Amino acid sequence: MRNIFEGYRLFAIDPKKSRSKDFYKNMLEYRAHVMKKFAPAIKKPSDFACLLCGGKKWEEFLALGKYKLYECLRCALVSPNIDFSKAGGSEMYDDPKNIKDTTREIVATYGYRKKVHAPERLAYLMEKTGLKKKDITLLDVGCGPGYFLSYLKDKKIKSKGLELAEFLVDICRKHGLNVTSTELSKEKPGSYSALTLFDVLEHLTAPVAFFKDVNRALKVGGYMMAYSPNIHSLAYMLMGNRQNTLYPYQHTAFFDRQSLEYLAKKTGFTLHSLEFYGLDVMDYLCMKQYDDRYDYFDKLREAVPLLQVVIDKQGLGNHLRVIFKKINNV
Predict the structure, then answer these.
(1) N or C: which end of the chain has fewer CB within 10 A?
(2) Are strands 137-141 and 158-162 parallel, antiparallel or unpaired?
(3) For residue 92, is pLDDT > 90?
């Protein structure tokens, strides 16, 4: 039979190993908690200013009750209109419910993520940048419990992690990993050939300032790779505000090509690569399973990765992979 998927990147991620049993239910419960706790942080629409470019002109993109996302008409970043002095930082991430959610969804799936996700991430970085193992000195920012760093350590690749959540730093250190809770701005300039941001880009509240710190940490010619939700995706079209990557008050910056190019231009980078590899079908089936109490994924297991690869090829997957190359110091 002709290989109709030649040239496509096919993934087979098992949600029953990469997520908790009641993933979607747990997500809704945590969302309800933060929606109530941080509701006073919502600002008036007239007070909106884009987190990326400072633009004041916007269109409403998506609403979850009074919590709304706006698309900047200048740079195309999608972001909420909230007062970060009332929502964010330690109050958000040291919240016992956030620790419980992170432990259940990320820490408890450590072994699977190290075995499946970590090798693929290193291979993707090397494929897209041309870096060789011997030439990689890597900083993983927002490293979580450290499964990617643990894999790099096994491969004898020089690496370090930064993580602000102290309970995750403790987990990393128990695994013997080089991880600290210091700020990125404290890193010695030009120390790294590669910097990774897995599920971090969407948390930024001051992207330009943060990327200037990224620039300083990298060597000229070095690469920054990020995985982040794509809000302009099939999953969001099908699920709307029920999409599980919405994460009110935490996911504050949703990028597309235009906004990524704006960010690169302002911070000494060029947009080296942009591709889309999502979990649209899996996410939709998780929602339907919650609604209907029926295990759709179990019945459609073989079809899910094949359907997803077509969605990804059209640039509609709900996660983007972006690689920036540093071209000069800023």
Answers:
(1) N
(2) parallel
(3) no
Q: Are 65 and 57 contacting, i.e. CB atoms less than 8 angstroms apart?
A: no
Distance between CA atoms of 165 and 55, rounded to whole angstroms?
31
Contact (Cβ atoms closer than 8 angstroms) between residue 247 and residue 231: no
Q: Which amino acid is at 118?
A: A
Return the structure tokens found at 138.
């890597």
Structural tokens at position 228: 């982040």
Q: Pick from 282, 250, 298: which is nearest to 18 by CA?
A: 282
Residues 6+ apart with CB under 8 A from 226: 196, 197, 198, 200, 201, 321, 322, 323, 324
Distance CA 77, CA 229 (A): 13
The span from the CA of 164 to the CA of 173, in Å, is 13
pLDDT band at 90 (very low <50, low <70, confident <90, very high): confident
Q: How confident is the model at residue 289 (pLDDT cuts 50, 70, 90)?
A: very high
Q: Which of 292, 266, 275, 134 is nearest to 211 (CA)?
A: 266
HEC readout, the chain: CCCCCCCCCCCCCCHHHHCCCCHHHHHHHHHHHHHHHCHHHECCHHHCCCCCCCCCCEEEEEEECCEEEEEECCCCCEEECECCCCCCHHHHHCCHHHHHHHHHHHHCCHHHHHHHHHHHHHHHHHHHHCCCHHHCEEEEECCCCCHHHHHHHHCCCEEEEECCCHHHHHHHHHCCCCEECCCHHHCCCCCEEEEEEECCHHHCCCHHHHHHHHHHHEEEEEEEEEEEECCCCHHHHHHHHHCCCCCCCCCCCECCHHHHHHHHHHCCEEEEEEEECCCHHHHHHHHHHHHHCCCHHHHHCCHHHHHHHHHHHCCCCCEEEEEEEECCCC
Q: What is the CA radius of gyration of the chain?
A: 19
Mind listing the pLDDT tens digit for each residue in 26-54? 999 999 999 999 999 999 999 999 999 99
Give how far the C-alpha of residue 259 lies from the chain's centroid of Cα atoms, to the nearest Å. 16
